[in-house]
C-alpha cells in the first residue's frame, strides 16, 4: 500500500493554512504521532526509513511550536493609495534580520523517486503549528516568482532590483514554506534563487523541501553553474539535508490502464489516439487556441474543449520552458502526445524539456495519453540527465494507473462543465 500522496488542489494554487480558530488534532499531536496512527489504521505500511525522516520533521514541529508566530504586516498608506506592488516597492523598511544562530534550520529531504518524500512532507505540513504556511510545487513557485517580478518591473520602470521587495512580500505572508520537487533546470531561476532565498532566510522564513537531487548537484554541469554555487552554500548553511531511501518505489505496481501509453507509435496507436481525442473532447469543436501569459504566447494548434494534442517534436523540440508547460497544464486537463521517441546523448535537451513537461502535468493532475517508441523506463537511458529521468518514468507509471485516471477524468469533466456554463 502506498504511503499516500496528499490530494492535489484542482485550482493549482498554493496549499495554504490560514485557520486561526485553533489548532487541529494533527497540529496538537505532531507528525510522528499521526504517522504511527496511519500505520495502525492500515492506511500506510510501516517503513523504517520514512519513520526516521518523520522523527526529524517531528523535531522541527516541536521547534516551530515554541517560535512566536509573526502577525501579517498591515498595509501601509502608500500601498493602499498606490496599489500593492507600487506601495511595496516604496516600502522596503523591515524588521532587522535574525542572527543565523537564532533561526530555525529548515529541512532538505532528498532521495530516489517514489520513496514517500512528498507524503512525509505533506504530513508535516498538515501538522505544522504555525498560521502562516504554504505548500507548493517548486515549479509553480518559480512561475509565480517570475510573474511577480514582471509585474513589479512594469509597475516601477525605474526599479533597479525587484527581488528585495518580492522577498519582503513573501516573508510577510508566510512563516513556513514547503516545496515539493525542488529542482533547478532553468538559468533564469538559478540567477534569482540565491538572493531571493538569502532574503527569505534573513526574515526568518523556515523552508522544507523534497528533491531527487543532492544540494551539491543542483544545476551542476550547466552553463552558469559556478555562479550558482553560493546558493548551494546558503542551502547547506540554513537547512539540514536528510536522505529518504526506502527500498520500495511506492508508485510502481499499481493497476495499469493499457490505453494511456501506446507502444509502438505506429498507425494503430495513432488511430487509437484519434478515438481518445474525440472521446475526451466531449463534442467540442476542433480549433486552435492561443495561451497568453507573462508577456508570452503559446500556440496550441489542435484543441477541443478540455483536450489538446501535439506531436512530440512540436511540444519538446521547440524552446519552451516551465511557464509554457504550466500554462498548457492549467488550460487543458487532458493532453495527447504522438510519437515520443527514444532519446540519447544527442537528444538531452529534448529529454530535459520532456521532464519539465511531465513535471507540470503530474503536479496539475492532468490526464496523459501518448504513443511512444518504448516504455517510459526505456526512453532515455544514456546521456546527460538520464539518471534524473527515472523520476519521470516513475511519474508516468503512476499517471497510467487506474486510480490516476479516475481522479483525472473527474477533474476534466468538471473543467469542461465549467467552461460550457
Automatic annotation (TrEMBL):
The keyword Transmembrane helix does not apply. GO terms for molecular function: ATP binding; ATP hydrolysis activity. It comes from the Bacteria. InterPro entries: ATPase_AFG1-like, P-loop_NTPase. GO terms for biological process: cell division. Keywords: ATP-binding, Cell cycle, Cell division, Nucleotide-binding. It holds the Pfam family AFG1_ATPase. GO terms for cellular component: cytoplasm. Gene3D superfamilies: P-loop containing nucleotide triphosphate hydrolases (3.40.50.300). This is Cell division protein ZapE.
Amino acid at each position: 500500500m502506498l504511503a499516500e500522496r496528499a490530494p492535489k488542489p484542482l485550482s493549482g494554487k498554493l496549499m495554504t493554512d490560514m485557520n486561526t480558530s485553533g489548532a487541529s488534532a494533527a497540529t496538537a499531536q505532531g507528525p510522528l504521532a499521526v504517522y504511527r496512527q496511519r500505520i495502525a489504521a492500515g492506511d500506510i505500511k510501516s517503513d523504517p526509513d520514512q519513520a526516521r525522516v518523520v522523527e526529524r520533521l517531528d523535531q522541527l514541529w516541536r521547534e516551530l511550536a515554541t517560535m512566536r508566530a509573526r502577525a501579517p504586516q498591515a498595509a501601509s498608506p502608500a500601498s493602499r493609495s498606490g496599489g500593492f506592488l507600487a506601495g511595496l516597492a516604496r516600502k522596503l523598511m523591515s524588521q532587522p534580520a535574525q542572527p543565523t544562530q537564532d533561526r530555525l534550520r529548515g529541512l532538505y529531504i532528498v532521495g530516489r523517486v517514489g520513496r514517500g518524500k512528498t507524503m512525509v512532507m505533506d504530513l508535516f505540513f498538515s501538522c505544522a503549528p504555525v498560521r502562516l504556511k504554504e505548500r507548493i510545487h517548486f515549479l509553480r513557485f518559480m512561475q509565480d516568482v517570475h510573474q511577480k517580478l514582471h509585474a513589479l518591473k512594469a509597475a516601477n520602470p525605474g526599479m533597479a532590483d525587484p527581488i528585495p521587495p518580492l522577498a519582503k512580500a513573501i516573508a510577510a505572508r508566510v512563516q513556513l514554506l514547503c516545496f515539493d520537487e525542488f529542482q533547478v533546470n532553468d538559468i533564469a531561476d538559478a540567477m534569482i534563487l540565491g538572493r531571493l532565498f538569502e532574503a527569505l532566510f534573513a526574515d526568518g522564513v523556515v523552508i522544507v523541501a523534497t528533491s531527487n537531487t543532492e544540494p551539491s548537484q543542483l544545476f551542476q554541469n550547466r552553463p552558469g553553474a559556478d555562479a550558482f554555487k553560493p546558493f548551494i552554500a546558503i542551502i547547506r548553511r540554513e537547512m539540514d539535508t536528510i536522505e529518504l531511501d526506502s527500498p520500495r518505489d511506492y508508485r510502481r505496481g499499481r493497476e495499469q490502464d493499457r490505453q494511456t501509453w501506446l507502444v509502438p507509435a505506429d498507425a494503430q496507436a495513432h488511430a487509437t489516439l484519434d478515438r481518445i481525442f474525440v472521446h475526451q473532447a466531449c463534442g467540442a469543436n476542433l480549433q486552435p487556441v492561443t495561451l497568453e501569459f507573462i508577456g508570452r504566447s503559446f500556440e496550441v494548434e489542435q484543441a477541443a474543449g478540455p483536450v489538446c494534442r501535439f506531436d512530440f517534436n512540436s511540444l519538446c523540440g521547440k524552446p519552451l520552458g516551465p511557464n509554457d508547460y504550466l500554462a498548457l497544464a492549467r488550460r487543458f486537463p487532458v493532453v495527447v502526445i504522438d510519437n515520443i521517441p527514444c532519446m540519447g546523448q544527442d537528444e538531452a535537451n529534448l529529454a530535459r524539456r520532456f521532464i519539465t513537461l511531465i513535471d507540470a502535468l503530474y503536479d496539475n493532475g492532468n490526464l496523459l495519453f501518448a504513443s511512444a517508441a518504448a516504455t517510459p523506463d526505456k526512453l532515455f537511458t544514456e546521456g546527460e540527465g538520464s539518471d534524473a529521468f527515472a523520476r519521470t518514468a516513475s511519474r508516468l507509471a503512476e499517471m497510467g494507473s487506474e486510480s490516476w485516471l479516475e481522479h483525472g477524468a473527474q477533474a476534466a469533466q468538471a473543467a469542461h462543465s465549467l467552461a460550457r456554463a
